[in-house]
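Bit of a strange request maybe. I'm writing a small parser for structure token strings and I need a real example to test against, not something I typed by hand. Could someone generate the tokens for this chain?
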Amino acid sequence: MKKTPATTTKRLSSPRQYRALLLLMKGPRSVRELFDRIPCNGVPQLIGSLRDKGLQIDTIEFKTRDRDDKSVTYCAYVLHKCHRRSNTDPLAPT
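Reply from user aminoacidic:
Good idea to test on real output. This should exercise your parser:
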């Protein structure tokens, strides 16, 4: 009997992880946007749990100005392009 190769990633264990992954597959998302759209309080912990499952999620910085015209920096999470396949399971082995 043939053995199937072991997957390199683990399956998602919560609906929040699934919703976060779907949003990240569409493009960069800020912590605030993930907070508003998922919703959950621990967005960095949620991203950490996705990283623990084998997904490569990078953090990028953006510089902008706030409503008081002060320079501010905020970060967004970006799913690495090797996981961003719109028509297949991003957790499937490659």
